[in-house]
């Protein structure tokens, strides 16, 4: 092939399904975004292999490091010596390895063989290099489908039946050569060579056994591109050709190629191949990737099994040959992707794939329908960027405005097809409860991210729920021209639609879009996007719980708690007298934490200020995730105290303090044996024990009662916990000496249960019990135990032992008479004084 295009690179990619000329449907619909478009093999344009080559006849093999490209790169169709640069006089320049052929990937390097014992002209119209077989291995060429999944693949390549011969316009002493780029995508360059057979076997590079990739049933295609003929004279002398030995090649509309079972006797190596007269196929206008008529010089062949053979070459004797699977006729577009974003000034082309409001799969517990999640924005992963919310916290609000993005891939000229569409339009029917105000709220971005002016035809529609966007001719041309540039192969153009959530919107809003493409030959294709879901924001709720004393279970006031959302302060709440902590108007979602930031006096937080996790479901349910709050209660521990014990002995009848009662204090050891600690005697203000009440179990016994009172026969028991507070040891069914429990008459039921008595002679008094209390004029907190006692009853005297009555009335009658006389004298004296006045 003479004067090959500068930008065109070798491509070997299988496209499935291939659309055959004469058999393809005129209207085809692609699946949703994310479905496999059927490419069984993708040759990576940037994959560089460590290529090994072996020549069975000992051809001189050389490696080129690819440091410099050679050739007039600014000239797409090259110069006259485009394929002769490797010659140095009469010998090939294998020793100059600091270069790369201009149409190969720069920096990839090359691996070549030179037949220095042969001269091209000695081959005449074509001679086989006897017994020569080249075997090459590429350890990385791209990806291929294996068992429904893509794997990294290498390639084993075998070149045989190599025919050398005269090369027109080149010195007769030139040596034949074949040079492969270390980037398989870039292809093969040859000179002094008329034809060769080539076999490809692709293998799974991730398997130790290098398992072959089997393309049976996948209907893959291998295309030979830019099969130029001479622009004048006898075209067969300079044409390029390709074939697989059968008339099974697929040709584009308007092709310049045709199948020839037999060529003339001077070109016997072209039998069973496709070639043609290029006529109006010109180098400048047509012979480059993306040109409108570039497909007319392309033929595609079917691939199957694990091994595929082809013949290719140039009657001219030198060429750079390109392989691809890009179809020579219109192919199905890849499906568009649909995303949804907040509508603010920062949301432009760069945010088109973020999809930060999509909650698809939330209800079902499944993953996104979106096939192109961006790092830090995929809610199905745990590693979200700052400010990106998980699915269950993504909401839209009634009256709010948002953006739908529709990202439509273009035809990848290097891997999909060689024909570009002439018409493009987008359909999007919005769900009831959402609407768009007009075409002015729709933006079209090109592949380079810039807005395209005059984007839509006059008959486009964007009103209410109905959206039909017909791209203008100028917009289609802009997109097609950009798609011809290598950096934009297969890239997306983007439509951004600003829509509104109305007051009658449903709780779940679902949407998907469809694209439509037409071609000059009346072919048309439809492609459906993925589905995106958004949800309305639910009503806020109050989050509340009770703060309580872990020992007494009493409500605690003045505890301060702070609510955070993903580390950011939300609000504070302080417990009231009833212990209630209440955070108000909290939006449902996850990522909430609560922390006790202010502890009541004489208490400690048992969790030491740890933040614990809370989740609020959409239906307002509160989920305490760390089991810190149970039954909507949060404890605080009283600060550990070492109280002394204060004993009050009281009269059961009137609660007056009793003096001179003697009590002994014991503490039980680990074996339950009682050890005496001290003995005290009560006063009219009670009595303090000197022993500090460390945690443990204690007993009290009355060993001497006050005069005229009974000595209690039983033993009192109480237990001090790790905080120095008494624990429950008693029973509210305990019966006093009168046989009654007096449950409703007890002053403090808790203190009543914090001491037990094993006797049946304890009289009832409502103050009985053990508690922490302020005792004395200095109001010092102590463990106060109040124990009632009762006067010893005096037995009645029997009648038979009463003494008889003796003697008279004594002087009592005289005393009464004297008193009467005194009263009379006073009355008479008072009356006399009144008359005298």
Note down, in words, how this protein is organized:
- Strands 2, 3, 10, 11, 12, 15, 17 and 22 form an eight-stranded antiparallel β-sheet that branches.
- This protein has 837 residues and is mainly beta.
- 5% of the residues lie in helices and 36% in strands.
- The termini are far apart.
- A hairpin with a 5-residue loop joins strand 33 and strand 34 (524-528).
- The chain has four helices and 53 strands.
Quick rundown:
InterPro entries: Ig-like_fold (IPR013783), SpaA_PFL_dom_1 (IPR041033). With 837 residues, the chain is mainly β.
Features:
53 strands, single chain, 837 residues, 8-stranded antiparallel β-sheet, 36% strand, 4 domains, Immunoglobulin-like, elongated, 4 helices, mainly beta, Major cell-surface adhesin PAc
SSE layout:
Elements: E1 27-30, E2 41-43, E3 52-55, E4 60-64, E5 69-70, E6 87-88, E7 91-92, E8 100-101, E9 110-114, E10 127-128, E11 134-146, E12 149-164, E13 177-181, E14 188-191, E15 193-204, E16 220-225, E17 240-243, E18 250-251, E19 258-260, E20 273-275, H1 283-286, E21 299-303, E22 308-314, E23 318-324, E24 337-342, E25 401-409, E26 423-429, E27 434-435, E28 442-445, E29 461-463, E30 466-470, H2 473-483, E31 492-501, E32 508-511, E33 513-518, E34 524-528, E35 532-535, E36 541-549, E37 560-565, E38 568-574, E39 580-586, E40 589-598, E41 603-604, E42 612-616, E43 622-624, E44 633-638, E45 644-651, E46 662-668, E47 674-681, E48 687-692, E49 696-704, E50 715-720, H3 749-753, E51 756-757, E52 769-775, E53 780-789, H4 812-836
Parallel strand pairs: 1-34, 5-8, 36-44, 45-53
Antiparallel strand pairs: 2-11, 3-11, 4-9, 6-7, 9-13, 10-12, 11-12, 12-15, 13-14, 14-23, 15-22, 16-21, 16-23, 17-22, 18-21, 19-20, 24-25, 25-31, 26-30, 26-33, 27-31, 28-31, 29-30, 32-35, 33-34, 36-39, 37-38, 37-40, 40-42, 41-44, 42-43, 45-48, 46-47, 46-49, 49-50, 50-51, 52-53
């Amino acid at each position: 092939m003479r004067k090959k295009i500068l930008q065109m690179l070798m491509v070997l990619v299988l496209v499935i399904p291939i659309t055959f000329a004469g058999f393809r449907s005129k209207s085809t619909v692609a699946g949703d975004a994310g479905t496999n478009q059927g490419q069984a093999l993708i040759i990576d344009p940037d994959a560089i292999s460590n290529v090994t080559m072996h020549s069975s006849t000992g051809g001189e093999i050389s490696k080129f490091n690819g440091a410099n490209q050679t050739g007039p790169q600014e000239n797409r169709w090259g110069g006259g010596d485009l394929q002769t640069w490797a010659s140095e006089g009469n010998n090939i320049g294998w020793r100059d390895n600091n270069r790369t052929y201009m149409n190969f990937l720069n920096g990839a390097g090359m691996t070549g063989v030179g037949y220095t014992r042969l001269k091209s002209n000695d081959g005449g119209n074509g001679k086989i290099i006897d017994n020569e077989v080249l075997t090459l291995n590429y350890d990385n060429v791209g990806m291929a489908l294996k068992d429904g999944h893509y794997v990294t693949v290498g390639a084993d390549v075998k070149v045989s039946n190599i025919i050398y011969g005269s090369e027109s316009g080149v010195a007769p002493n030139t040596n034949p050569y074949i040079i492969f780029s270390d980037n398989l995508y870039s292809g093969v360059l040859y000179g002094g060579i008329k034809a060769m057979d080539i076999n490809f076997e692709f293998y799974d590079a991730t398997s130790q056994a290098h398992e072959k990739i089997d393309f049976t049933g996948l209907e893959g295609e291998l295309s030979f591109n830019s099969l130029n003929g001479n622009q004048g004279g006898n075209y067969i002398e300079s044409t390029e050709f390709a074939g697989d030995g059968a008339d099974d090649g697929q040709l584009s509309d308007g092709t310049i190629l045709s199948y020839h079972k037999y060529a003339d006797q001077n070109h016997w190596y072209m039998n069973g191949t496709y070639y043609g007269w290029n006529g109006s196929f010109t180098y400048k206008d047509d012979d480059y990737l993306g040109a409108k008529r570039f497909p007319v010089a392309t033929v595609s062949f079917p691939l199957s099994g694990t091994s595929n053979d082809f013949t290719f070459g140039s009657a001219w004797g030198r060429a750079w040959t390109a392989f691809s699977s890009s179809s020579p006729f219109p192919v199905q577009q890849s499906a568009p992707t649909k995303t949804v974003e907040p509508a603010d000034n920062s949301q432009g082309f760069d945010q088109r794939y973020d999809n930060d409001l999509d909650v698809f799969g939330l209800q079902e517990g499944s993953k996104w329908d979106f096939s192109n999640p961006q790092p830090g924005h995929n809610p199905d992963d745990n590693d979200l960027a700052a400010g990106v919310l998980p699915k269950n916290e993504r909401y839209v609000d009634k009256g709010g405005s948002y953006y739908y993005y529709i990202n439509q891939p273009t035809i990848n000229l290097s891997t999909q097809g060689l024909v570009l569409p002439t018409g493009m339009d987008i359909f999007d029917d919005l769900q009831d409860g959402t609407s768009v105000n007009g075409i002015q709220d729709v933006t079209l971005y090109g592949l380079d991210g810039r807005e395209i002016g005059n984007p839509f035809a006059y008959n486009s529609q964007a009103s209410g729920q109905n959206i039909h966007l017909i791209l203008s001719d100028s917009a289609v041309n802009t997109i097609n021209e950009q798609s011809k540039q290598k950096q934009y192969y297969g890239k997306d153009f983007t439509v951004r639609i600003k829509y509104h959530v109305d007051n009658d919107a449903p709780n779940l809003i679902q949407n998907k879009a469809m694209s439509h493409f037409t071609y000059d030959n009346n072919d048309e294709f439809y492609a459906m996007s993925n589905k995106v879901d958004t949800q309305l924001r639910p009503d806020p709720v109050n989050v509340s719980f009770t703060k309580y004393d872990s020992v007494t279970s009493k409500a605690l006031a003045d505890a301060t708690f702070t609510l955070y959302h993903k580390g950011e302060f939300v609000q504070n709440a302080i417990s009231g007298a009833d212990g209630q902590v209440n955070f108000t108007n909290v939006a449902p979602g996850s990522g909430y934490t609560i922390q006790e930031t202010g502890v009541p006096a004489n208490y400690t937080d048992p969790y030491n200020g740890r933040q614990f996790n809370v989740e609020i479901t959409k239906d307002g349910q509160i989920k305490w995730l760390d089991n810190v709050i149970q039954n909507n209660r949060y404890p605080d521990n009283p600060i550990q105290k070492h109280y002394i014990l204060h004993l009050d002995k009281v009269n059961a009848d009137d609660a007056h303090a009793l003096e001179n009662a003697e009590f002994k204090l014991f503490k039980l050891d680990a074996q339950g044996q009682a050890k005496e600690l001290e003995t005290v005697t009560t006063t009219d203000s009670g009595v303090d024990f000197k022993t500090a009440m460390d945690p443990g179990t204690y007993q009290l016994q009355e060993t001497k009662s006050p005069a005229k009172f009974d000595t209690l026969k039983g033993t009192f028991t109480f237990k001090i916990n790790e905080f120095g507070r008494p624990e429950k040891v008693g029973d509210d069914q305990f019966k006093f000496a009168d046989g009654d429990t007096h449950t409703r008459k007890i002053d403090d039921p808790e203190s009543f249960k914090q001491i037990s008595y094993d006797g049946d002679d304890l009289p009832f008094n409502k103050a009985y019990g053990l508690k922490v209390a302020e005792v004395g004029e200095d109001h010092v907190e102590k463990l106060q135990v109040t124990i009632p006692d009762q006067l010893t009853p005096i037995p009645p005297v029997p009648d038979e032992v009463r003494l008889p009555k003796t003697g008279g009335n004594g002087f009592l009658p005289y005393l009464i008479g004297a008193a009467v006389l005194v009263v009379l004298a006073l009355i008479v004296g008072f009356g006399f004084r009144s008359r005298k006045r």
